[in-house]
């Protein structure tokens, strides 16, 4: 059994590089995840589950989450939307299964976050149970800042945004394009909203899981844009996401240099120093320390 209380998932160096999604009805895929090197798993009750098997999916997932030992992998359940007939039973199942988070699809309004938070607070759900929100509609993007800020009033449960590009492309009529040129402005808007209120943000899925070169290019782009990780649909995508959303060898070397320079007694009391002809500020030392913490967290996960 999982001892969720022993996991410090809200630590600043929590890892969400690779967030694999699994349809709750896919038993073969469910059986596989305990052997996969992903940081987090989204168990999906929404779009990947056909309407006539929603109840069966819910029942099987509850059983699975009660039995399975998934080690340090963060467990998130994606429920059906709050306007659907499945929502109440989905949320009741989440409370019974006690994963680390519930993911709301197609969030467009802060009231949707508040709604689920109220249900959780009125139940015996653990205070550590977080809420994640998918931003995947034009209104979701436009209201991202209001939704993100609602995390503060919603008992602090709101923890992460996940981008859903398939739905966003459908609604905006922007066709698929490997460079993502025309959707990038929307993605950056969501990123800024999330950062303004201390949320993590996970980049969208890439549908073509057999084209790993294109996938890796998209991971590199997502990491450069500032995403914390990527939602994945297939095990073949895990290694690339872990690599691109983890610190590179060069970044680690630079971080060590900066931390060492600031811990040199000769630099005590200085907020700005010269390293090899570059101005380095104390804020860079804070960033470097965070990067090294993430590295330590990655190394301690080798045994998941
Ligand atoms: N999680 C865990 N294991 C998975 C997986 C996933 N998301 N996708 C595939 N696998 C497993 C398969 O079960 C198979 O293992 P097995 O041989 O032991 O059964 C292995 O990985 C290879 O899979 P493959 O044959 O290449 O693909 P598939 O035809 O079984 O599945 C998809 C392809 C797209 C149907 C499947 O990857 C999937 O359902 N992904 C998630 C989709 C989703 O959740 N969408 C909603 C959010 S956008
Ligand atoms: Mg969607």
What are the defining features of this structure?
304 residues; TIM Barrel; 2 domains; 10 strands; binds coenzyme A; binds magnesium ion
Describe the structure.
The chain has 304 residues and is an alpha/beta fold. The radius of gyration is 20 Å and the shape is globular. Helix 4 (110-122) packs parallel to helix 6, helix 9 (212-225) runs parallel beside helix 10 and helix 11 packs across helix 12. The protein is built from twelve helices and ten strands. The longest helix has 19 residues, at 282-300. An eight-stranded parallel barrel has the order 1-2-3-4-5-6-7-8, surrounded by five helices. It has two domains: 10-244, Phosphoenolpyruvate-binding domains (TIM Barrel), CATH 3.20.20.60; 249-300, no CATH class. It has helices at 27-32, 54-67, 87-97, 110-122, 138-142, 144-153, 165-172, 184-196, 212-225, 238-245, 249-263, 282-300; strands spanning 18-23, 40-44, 74-78, 101-104, 130-135, 158-163, 200-203, 229-232, 272-275, 278-281. The structure holds coenzyme A and magnesium ion (MG).
